[in-house]
Automatic annotation (TrEMBL), chain A:
PANTHER family: XANTHINE DEHYDROGENASE, XANTHINE DEHYDROGENASE SUBUNIT D-RELATED. SUPFAM superfamilies: CO dehydrogenase molybdoprotein N-domain-like, Molybdenum cofactor-binding domain. It comes from Hwanghaeella grinnelliae. Pfam families: Ald_Xan_dh_C (PF01315), MoCoBD_1 (PF02738), MoCoBD_2 (PF20256). SMART domains: Ald_Xan_dh_C. This is Xanthine dehydrogenase family protein molybdopterin-binding subunit.
UniProtKB/TrEMBL annotation, chain C:
Keywords: FAD, Flavoprotein, Oxidoreductase. This is Xanthine dehydrogenase family protein subunit M. It comes from the Bacteria. The keyword Flavoprotein applies. SMART domains: CO_deh_flav_C. InterPro entries: CO_DH_flav_C (IPR005107), CO_DH_flav_C_dom_sf (IPR036683), Diverse_Substr_Oxidored (IPR051312), FAD-bd_PCMH (IPR016166), FAD-bd_PCMH-like_sf (IPR036318), FAD-bd_PCMH_sub1 (IPR016167), FAD-bd_PCMH_sub2 (IPR016169), Mopterin_DH_FAD-bd (IPR002346). The keyword Oxidoreductase applies. It comes from Hwanghaeella grinnelliae. Gene3D superfamilies: 3.30.465.10, CO dehydrogenase flavoprotein, C-terminal domain, Uridine Diphospho-n-acetylenolpyruvylglucosamine Reductase, domain 2. The lineage of its organism: Bacteria, Pseudomonadati, Pseudomonadota, Alphaproteobacteria, Rhodospirillales. GO terms for molecular function: FAD binding; oxidoreductase activity. Residues 1-172 form the FAD-binding PCMH-type domain.
Automatic annotation (TrEMBL), chain D:
Gene3D superfamilies: 3.10.20.30, [2Fe-2S]-binding domain (1.10.150.120). SUPFAM superfamilies: 2Fe-2S ferredoxin-like, CO dehydrogenase ISP C-domain like. InterPro entries: 2Fe-2S-bd, 2Fe-2S-bd_dom_sf, 2Fe-2S_ferredoxin-like_sf, 2Fe-2S_ferredoxin-type, 2Fe2S_fd_BS, Beta-grasp_dom_sf, Diverse_Oxidoreductases. This is (2Fe-2S)-binding protein. PANTHER family: OXIDOREDUCTASE WITH IRON-SULFUR SUBUNIT (PTHR44379:SF5). The keyword rRNA-binding does not apply. One of its GO terms (molecular function) is oxidoreductase activity. Residues 4-80 form the 2Fe-2S ferredoxin-type domain. Keywords: 2Fe-2S, Iron, Iron-sulfur, Metal-binding, Oxidoreductase.
Length: 752, 79, 285, 159
């Protein structure tokens, strides 16, 4: 629906004075989380609960000839065993998700689920798994994206390529997409220099510390309850209902506290299996993944192979740019090659630009969304070439970016013309920051890079209820992944004109609200915030009506200001203001409880840009890289709770540092994952890092009443490139292959 | 006038900008589907539409003004 | 699985000797429990040795130090006299795992896990440590480098277990050091590890040296050529380069998820040189 | 398989339990004693989310057998606050927004408390190395380290 975006009484362009928004109150779920009593996915139990475990394929690619579970079923304590045969055909929409949760004809990657058991203890469940005989016919496999595209590559799915895929490539290529405008060849012909480079990035995992976990209870009548750690319990409800062939309304899903997601908990893995086990055993079933299972069978992001070609004039003006982006998305279609193709050149105002994206399947776990899916790798490749060209001409890399920066009115590389955007502001802030002028030590280098992300909105419901004592409870349908309860309470308090601690925000289960889009796309503060503000405005309207009844005047003659209903002007009559508390106290006498609610598909999210600056030091004898200093400059639209905005900036930057330096999926010749643990899947630890400085810029999003833009994802787009540019300068050699692990950096230094 | 992405131009006789009479998002998508049947598989896979720089995924009755800039995009996903 | 907590060495030996299935010693458990979790080992008997007298003690003996098999890294790090005598061994031990792991992990366990990448072992090798083993035939003392025979396998026989590690008396003007290379700053397994121990005479000439190398072969290496390059020199740059070359030449590494052959071979030399400089500075006081 | 009877003190209270010989202390705390503040992030000692202290020594409860705790004193996150009074570290974590999702928070608080008991005046570097075994994926550690340093300062002032 079209939204009236303006705050009443506020002229366009006029900065609003906030009382609560922009402050840093303590989060309402804080004490639960510092005392250990907050309940996460694995922290729930039920009477008579069974423990479920999954049997996983040890093969990268194998036909499943047969599964014999009779010995497992006969083991004392085993109450149910399920295989794919226990699931129906399911809707087409969820066919891939079902096949990923429980393999059908083929196991498509190392770690692919092939059967599951529910037993009276974890030990018995583990023992039962060993008693299941699976007859596999192993098949040739492929895990590398370029290898998988070759015509003679082992094929995962026959006939999957759609009409966009040209002849001469493997059927593993699912889809090809192209964006751009102008004539790149003509543009390259005009350039003083054309530079073409190829890049590779390894697959990385979202790396949330909480493994997937759920507790399912399902009866034979199809009525079911599910407790689960997820980024979207409504998505879990809808997906599981479709897979299990039950009505969405019969499945109530409650979101636990969530121990990190970053996109990796935007789909289902264990949940349909736990429900199927529970249905079969007719008892509650709890399932948790081990860390090994998390790494082998969930997440990760795509590994990529990218070619970038850019033409630049001596003055730094880019004449043309093109990129070919090949992303493998694991065993099923849907790698974010399209997002990479759309975002690759988004920070630039280009006359001639073309990107081609390839979605490729391989024998790896199905790629899940990871924070700005597809964008960081594309930015790594593009920003590396821009940097090399700029430095080749002896130009300041920030000046070159400013010279070519997308701004209001720029026709973006993916099509639309940008409205007011904050890229130049981030670049200018970077240029003016002391970090840019600070001296570098020996073996140190400084890199900068820009990044872009779309952000989006989606279906959102908020219900705001006034209690009899005049405090407020706010129900929303998006798991609080990083302080969003605080932001919602703040926006409701701001709008109602009451103190922050008078609002309590809760995450409602799927029975309490309508459909809510997943906590993804950096949407929550934007979309749920918008719905919160609108719900509060609806409540204020009712509150004004109640005051009007008491005063015996027209409701239109009452306005809400500073937490009270007041006569709107002298003509309305002279009455002392009525506070929220006063109106709440007489709610029963004036028509009943007061509430405001708002349901919307919150379209029209604003895009967001960031510039990152990083200093690294390279040990020339070992190739070890140390991050010495890091500063994030990002447009937040409006920072509702600045501490949590900074936290998003810092967290994204550090995930990017991991991706750039040490994180990678390592497969052996046998197609098995060699590092399914936090020992060798090396996410940054505290001693690896400096403080991460942040500069929040606020260029308001006209699509949100307070100007909010999403901030969660953009922060992971620039770091790969910024660090690569920094390391390349420090090492004296251009690094094009992520991660820049010490053996690679040392080899690059030694090979010049 | 709708701007479509590069690889769809095979469905529109090579035109990157195509003319569709539409006052809402739904009319636009129906019009595209009717005029260029070859584009239907892509529409079925899901698209996002940028109207004057704002992204819309689903809202059928989102108004489109005569002078609006309308761009068809791959369905935006997030993490 | 049966869990036993014997209170004497003899009863531990009896339990281990009498075991019909697989038996494991539990001291810190930081390797054993990981292996049990992954299903790599499913012991029928676990013998917790922490309640045996002496297992948790650090005691001076003949001018050297005897470290009980259940002494944790954290306890070693808190023992000032031990740190002063063998800083290289202590710093190697303290590099293993996190603070949490330090609260449990032991020198003896790190040795008996028989990983070629064990951090404390090259340092113990350099220090000339001697391991005391109890078994059905009584007690024997053997050089530390003779314990691991290949990855995951020790030379200990059935019923035997390590009761202590002895670090010998430290000659005057001596110093030791251990350095390892890891991709992060903490929490990784060594890609290369190098322990150096050396002794100087009054004139500053190196009279004795030992160099231990980890993660570059199936077991920790004692590199005698490297030691020879130092002995008789003043550990100047020429000698150090010669030592580094000997270290690199001794490497027989593999390519794996943690590093390449070329990387390990090169970095072994780099680390040996850096470790030797630290040891030298310590020897010079 | 017979179970083992264990007597411990947990957060100051004498506690008895029966556990399987191969059961970890983490499983005992979570599944038998309903102390779910310690989390299992990896089960292999690599993430620190299950941190507790045993006889004052910081350990991963996933790398300790429940049977080993016999006669020991165990402290967990559930015992960190003194009644209604939060520990200064807990308070500073809230004030500095040092948690986003909160899954690593109990382990980090237990580890940080152990640090400050051993070293009341850690440098930033000492704090970072002490906490290197506690993985956090949300915050980039910046606000965590600030909260620990601030709590240390406040505790020094108060003592």
């Amino acid at each position: 629906m079209p939204l009236d975006d303006q705050t009443p009484g506020q002229k366009p362009g006029e900065a609003r004075q906030f009382k609560v928004v922009g402050t840093r109150p303590l989060r309402p779920d804080g004490i639960d989380k510092v005392t250990g009593r907050a309940r996460f996915g694995a922290d729930m139990s039920a009477p008579g609960m069974l423990i479920g475990r999954v049997l996983r394929s040890p093969h990268a690619h194998a036909r499943i000839r047969s599964i014999d579970a009779s010995k497992a079923e006969a083991l004392e304590g085993v109450k149910a065993v399920v295989t794919r045969a226990d699931f129906g055909a399911g809707d087409d929409d969820v066919a891939d998700i079902l096949d990923n949760c429980m393999a059908g004809e083929k196991a498509l990657y190392d770690g692919h689920a092939v059967a599951a058991v529910a037993a009276t203890s974890a030990a018995i469940a583990r023992k039962a798994l060993k008693l299941i005989d699976v007859d596999y016919e192993t098949l040739p496999h492929v895990v590398d994206v370029d290898a998988a595209m070759k015509p003679d590559a082992p094929v995962l799915h026959e006939g999957l390529s759609d009409e966009t895929v040209p002849d001469g490539v493997s059927q593993n290529v699912v889809h090809r997409v192209e964006f751009g405008h102008g004539d790149v060849e003509a543009g390259f012909a005009k350039a003083d220099k054309v530079l073409e480079r190829s890049f590779k990035t390894a697959a990385t995992h979202q790396g949330y510390i909480e493994p997937h976990a759920c507790l399912a209870t399902m009866g034979t009548d199809g009525i079911a309850d599910l407790w689960v750690c997820t980024q979207g319990h409504y998505m879990v409800r809808n997906t599981c209902a479709a897979i299990l062939g039950i009505d969405q309304g019969k499945l109530r899903v409650t979101a636990s506290e969530i121990g990190g997601g970053f996109g990796g908990k935007t789909t289902v893995f264990l949940e349909p299996v736990a429900l199927a086990l529970s249905r079969k055993a007719n008892r509650p079933v709890k399932m948790t993944m081990t860390r090994e299972e998390v790494l082998r069978a969930t997440g990760p992001t795509s590994s990529t192979s990218i070619d970038v070609k850019i033409g630049m004039n001596k003055d730094g003006k880019i004449t043309a740019a093109s990129a070919d982006l090949r992303y493998q998305g694991g065993a099923y279609q849907g790698s974010p090659a399209d997002m990479g193709s759309m975002t690759a050149f988004a920070p630039y105002d280009l006359e001639n630009v073309k990107t081609v994206g390839w979605d490729v399947v391989t024998n790896r776990p199905k790629a899940a969304a990871y924070r700005a899916p597809g964008a960081p790798m594309a930015a790594f490749a593009v920003e590396s070439v821009v940097d090399e060209l700029a430095k080749g001409f002896g130009l300041d890399p920030l000046d070159v970016r400013l010279k070519n920066a997308a701004r209001e009115g720029t026709k973006s590389s993916y099509g639309p013309t940008f409205p007011a955007i904050g890229l130049e502001a981030t670049l200018q802030a970077a240029k003016d920051h002391p970090h840019w002028k600070a001296p570098l030590g020996p073996n140190q280098g400084r890199g900068v890079a820009c990044g872009f992300w779309f952000n989006f909105g989606g279906d959102t419901c908020v219900s705001l209820n006034i209690t009899p004592d005049g405090t407020v409870t706010l129900s929303e349908g998006n798991p609080d992944i990083g302080g969003s309860r605080a932001s919602m309470s703040m926006m409701a308090a701001e709008e109602l004109g009451i103190p922050y601690d008078q609002v309590r925000t809760v995450i409602a289960d799927t029975g309490a609200l309508g459909q809510n889009e997943v906590t993804d796309g950096s949407r929550v503060t934007f979309a749920v915030g918008l719905a919160t503000i609108k719900a509060a405005r609806n409540a204020k309207k009712v509150l004004c009506e109640r005051a009007a009844m008491v005063w015996g005047i027209d409701p239109e003659a009452v306005e809400w200001a500073d937490g009270c209903a007041r006569p709107a002007g002298d003509n309305a009559g002279k009455f002392p203001p009525m506070s929220l508390k006063e109106i709440a106290a007489i709610a029963s006498n004036t028509g009943g409880p007061v509430a405001g609610h708002f349901e919307v598909n919150a379209e029209g999210a604003g895009v967001s840009f960031a510039t990152h600056m990083v200093d690294t030091e390279v040990d020339p004898e070992t190739g070890a890289v140390k991050v010495v200093r890091y500063t994030v400059f990002q447009d937040a639209g409006k920072a509702v709770h600045p501490a949590y905005v900074e936290g998003q900036f810092q967290g994204g930057a550090v995930q990017g540092i991991g991706w750039a330096l040490n994180e990678e999926y390592i497969y052996g010749e046998d197609g098995r994952l060699q590092n399914p643990g936090f020992l060798d899947y090396r996410i940054p630890v505290a001693s690896d890092l400096p403080m991460i400085d942040t500069v929040i810029l606020e260029i308001p999003n006209p699509g949100h009443p307070y100007g909010v833009r999403g901030v969660g994802e953009t922060s992971i787009v620039p770091p790969l490139a910024a660090i690569a540019n920094s390391v390349s300068e420090a090492a004296g050699v251009r690094m094009t292959d992520l991660p820049m692990s010490p053996p690679k950096v040392l080899a690059a230094i030694q090979n010049g | 006038m709708v701007r479509i992405w590069g690889s769809l131009t095979s469905a529109t006789d090579g035109q990157a900008d195509v003319e569709i009479e539409a006052t809402t998002l739904k009319e636009l998508l129906d019009g595209l589907s009717e005029k260029y049947p070859a584009i239907r598989p892509q529409l079925q896979r899901g698209v996002s539409v940028s109207i004057d720089g704002k992204i819309y995924n689903d809202s059928w009755f989102q108004p489109i003004k005569p002078d609006s800039e309308v761009v068809l995009l791959r369905r935006i996903v997030g993490g | 699985m049966i869990y036993e907590v014997p209170e004497t060495v003899d009863s531990a030996v009896a339990l281990l000797s009498g075991a019909t299935g697989s038996a494991r010693i539990l001291a810190g458990g930081t390797d054993l429990l990981v292996q049990m979790k992954s299903g790599v080992v499913e012991p029928d008997l676990v013998v917790d040795i922490k309640r045996i007298d002496g297992m948790k003690s650090i005691a001076q003996e003949d001018g050297g130090w005897r470290i009980g098999a259940a002494v944790s890294g954290a306890e070693m790090g808190e023992h000032q006299a031990l740190c002063a005598a063998w800083p290289g061994v202590v710093e190697a031990m303290e590099l293993i795992g996190s603070t949490q792991v330090q609260g449990r992990a032991t020198l003896a366990g790190n040795l008996c896990n028989a990983s070629p990448a064990a951090d404390s072992v090259p340092a113990m090798v350099a220090a000339g440590a001697v391991v005391r083993v109890a078994g059905p035939d009584g007690v024997r003392d053997i050089p530390v480098e003779e314990i691991p025979v290949k990855p995951g396998k020790t030379s200990l026989g059935k019923g035997e277990f390590v009761t202590s590690v002895f670090l010998p008396a430290r000659p005057v003007n001596s110093g030791d050091a251990y350095l390892r290379f890891i991709p992060r700053t903490e929490m990784d397994i060594a890609v290369v590890g190098c322990g150096v121990s050396l002794t100087l005479d009054e004139a500053g000439t190196c009279t004795a040296a030992r160099v231990g190398l980890g993660a570059v072969a199936a077991t920790v290496l004692v590199v005698e050529d490297a030691a020879a390059a130092l002995i008789g020199s003043k550990a100047d740059d020429t000698a150090l380069d010669k030592m580094a070359a000997a270290v690199s030449a001794a490497c027989k590494p593999i390519d794996d998820k943690r590093g390449t052959v070329a990387f390990r071979t090169h970095v072994a030399g780099v680390l040996a040189k850096r470790a030797a400089k630290i040891a030298l500075a310590r020897a010079q006081g | 398989m017979s179970q083992i009877h264990v007597t411990t003190k947990i957060n100051g209270d004498t506690t008895e339990y029966l556990c399987d010989p191969e059961e970890t202390l983490l499983d005992v705390l979570r599944d038998r004693l309903a102390l779910t503040g310690a989390k299992e992030g990896c089960g292999t000692g690599d993430c620190g989310a299950c941190s507790v202290t045993v006889d004052g020594r910081l350990v991963c409860s996933c790398l300790t057998l429940g049977a080993e705790a016999d006669g020991c004193e165990i402290d967990t996150i559930e015992g960190m606050a003194d009644g209604e009074k939060l520990h200064p570290l807990q308070q500073k974590f809230l004030e500095h927004a040092a948690l986003q999702c909160g899954i690593c928070t109990p382990g980090i608080l237990v580890a940080a408390k152990s640090l400050l008991e051993k070293n009341p005046s850690p440098t930033e570097e000492e704090a970072r190395y002490w906490l290197a075994g506690n993985l956090c994926r949300c915050t980039g550690y910046d606000k965590i380290i600030r909260a620990v340093m601030d709590a240390a300062e406040e505790m020094r002032r108060a003592s």
